[in-house]
Structure formats: C-alpha cells, structure tokens
Amino acid sequence: MTQRLDVIRDCLEGAVPGIMATCAADGTPNVAYLSQTEYVDGRHIALSYQFFNTTRRNILANPEARLIVTHPHTGERFRLRLRYLRTETAGPLFERMKAKLAGIASHTGMSGVFRLLGSDIYRVAEIERIPGAALAPPPPRASLLAALRAVSARIAGCRELDLLFSDTLDGLEAHFDIRHAMVLLLDGAGTRLYTIASRGYEASGVGSEIPLGQGVIGVAAREGTPIRIGYATLEYAYGRAIRAAAEANGLAAVLETEIPLPGLADSASQLAVPIRAAGRLLGVLYVESPHNLRFGYDDEDALVALAGQLGATMLSLQQASELQEEVLVPEPLAQPAAGRPVLVRHYAGDDSVFLDDDYLIKGVAGSIFWALVRDHVESGRSTFSNRELRLDPRIRLPDLSDNLEARLILLRRRLNERQACVRLEKAGRGRLLLTASRPLTLVEVGQGGARPDGACC
Q1: What span, in angstroms and rounded, lies between the C-alpha atoms of 48 and 46?
Q2: What span, in angstroms and rounded, lies between the C-alpha atoms of 392 and 375?
Q3: Which residues, in sequence order, are CB contacts of 69 under 8 Å at separation 6+?
Q4: What is the overall mean pLDDT for the chain?
Q5: Which pLDDT band, with edges at 50, 70 and 90, does 331 fall under?
Q6: What is the distance between the alpha carbons of residues 438 and 424, in angstroms, rounded to a whole number?
Q7: 251: DSSP letter
Q8: Is the pTM of this model over 0.90?
Q9: Which SMART domains does the entry link to (predicted)?
Q10: Nearest partner of 343 among 425, 258, 444, 434, judged by Cα
Q11: Cα–Cα distance for residue pair 173/341, rounded to 1 Å
Q12: What's the whole-number mean pLDDT along residues 419-440?
C-alpha cells in the first residue's frame, strides 16, 4: 500500500462519487458510480448497499473489486484494491451511513429513492495515486489540534457544572469557529435527551427534549456513535415544518409543554457526538452549520476527543459536588412578598408547571420546582440543600444516575429566561436559595387535569 487510508479520508466524503469496478464469475466486467463510501479504520472501508444490482451480484460471486475516489478540493484521484468481507444491516456503522446517505439523497434530489439495505465492509489491500495534475489544497480553517488544546484547557479549569457547559460552548466558537452548538443530557430513565445549554440560536431551547433514536442527535445517542451529515436533509426540515403548521393552525395548545429544540432553519452540515464517561452515555454534543460539508473526519475526531473530556469532567464535578455538600443550618424565615399573587399550577400527570398561564418546565425539574415552592409557601423556607432534594420522596429522582445538579441548572436557566418572579440561586456548596418577588398561590391538578389553552412559552 503506497498511501495510508486515513490520509485520503476526505476522498470518502461523497462530494465526488466513487467509481467501482467489479467482475462477474464469467469474467464480465462492470463499472458503476457509488453513492457513499465510509472510512471504518486504517485498513477497512464500507460501501453503501442500496440495490441488488450488477455490482452486488458480482461482489457476492467474486469478492475482488477496484474503487477510484477523488479528493474534493485538489482533484487528486486514488485507486483502491478491495476485497469484500461482509454486510452489516444494523448497529453504529449502519446507522452512521444511513444518516449520511439521507443527506446525500436530499442534496441530489433523490430522497425516497436512496434506501440503505446494508453496509458492505471491504478490506483495503492497496492504494495507489493515479498520475495527473492536482490543485493546491485550500488553507486550513484553523489548527484543530491547537483548538482542541485550548478548549481542553478551559474544561480542565472548570470547577462548576454550570460553567463547564458555558465554557465548552464558548470555546467551540472561539477556537473551532463553530457558532451553532448545544449540549443535551440523558435523563435518568435513559429514554430522552434534554437541552442543558446552547449557543447561536434565537431561542436557547433550554429544557427542550428529544427521544433516543429520533433525528441525528437521538440516533447518535442510541447507537453510541458520531453521526455526521454534510448536506441538508428533507427529514430534518420536515419536523420543523410540521411544528410551524401546527402552530399556524391554532394547535399551539398541543405543543404547549414542548419547548422547541433550537436549531438552524437552513442547517446543512450536522455533527452529533455522544458524551460518554465510565462506560455509560451522559449526553450528546451537537454542532451544525448552514454550509455544506462544514465538518469533516478531522472535525469529528477532534469533537469526539473533546466530548470524552467533557464527560469525564461532568462526572468528576458531580461527584465532587455530592461529597462537598454542606449540612443545612436553619435560617430565618423569608419575609412575605408583596403585589399581585402569581398562580402556580402543577399537573401531577407529567409534573408540568405553569406560572399563571406561562409554561415553565415539566418532568423531574418540574417535580423539584413544585417541592421547593410548596415548602416555601407552606413553611416559609428559602434555603434548601441538594442532599435533601436527592432524598425527597416527592421528587422521585429516577435513580442515582440522574444528575440532580444538571436538573437544577436547567431549572435556574428556565426561570431566568422566563423572567419569572421566582428565582433560584446558589447559596454555598450544595445549597440553594429560593426568592419570590410576588406572593405565590399554589394549585395542584391531579392526573388528567386540563391545562390552560394557548399557553406556550
């Protein structure tokens, strides 16, 4: 092999279709264009299997093949000698190629036509450069290693979970020139992701949720593998169009407790990277751009490394926070607030909470908020400890893996964004201070109770 496979990974991005030559058992040659090639490791690639065509019949009869790939910027061409090994029809590699194929299909107007049936794995026996003129490569946007080092230093300096998320997103913009990004965390039940921080969107979307397996983000989380798309997908735009149509047709009440997921309306390039630590999934780091092919293999490598450090630091800060929690000392009761009372409604069915008719939050964060305001109203308490919240049976934290600190960050941000009359502030290690600028009137609504119409945040 005269060329290293990892050096020519850009040729596998799909900007220029590959040309594949196979041979039937009787020696009849066949040449066909390929929709997608995928780098697997230093000695293997995967090719998309979409149709049972001549190429498919040939490689099943004769596993030897030749593939010509072209560099999207320099025009250099390389010839690969391949041997077919197997086909995968499920799992991380298949899902990664399926998502990427959807982007390619949309870009070429072939949505609904391209359907991935399998990922054909080939061993690369030899790579040779085809003689010919080549263009000069474009200058790099930035040194990814230098950017990774700079953001890693920021992460290493974080001492609080809240700052960790903010500094990571700030670092992505300052050093990677990534202007649209978000961090989502896995809930305790392990079925949904919720947005804890974002950058570059009109609305932060903090508190918005997405199920595992849905969209680029959900599939990346479910499969535990990065998902990268270089072109806009119709499926991505479709979900946004459905929401816009529902709102335009007066169905806002249906969506009232669904905070919209932030995102670019004209997103073209998307990259979702699982955040993992200690062998388990913690969340997803997601970045996007309005430009086609904005993120390549090197960007993916850099963000995978960054997500690993982000996950390890999240666990470390969470454990440190629990160990350093202070024992709560009773404090003087808060003075009653003045002004018009605010109606706080809690719906037991999904723990959703409304302040007057304004939706605030639901789920575990809603349960926490309801417990806090109940104690505040009924006993005049203003100071609370993380330890007591973790043990409070009213909150029903799913299990010990649920990150209470992250839920509190989410709740504080939602209150601040809504400019609510209730605020939560940190008051020492593992302690919270609740303040209310207006009197609170609490209403508990049982299972199935109707929510106020048209209340959408």
Answers
A1: 7
A2: 12
A3: 8, 11, 12, 16, 18, 37, 77, 78, 80
A4: 85
A5: low
A6: 14
A7: -
A8: no
A9: GAF
A10: 444
A11: 42
A12: 89
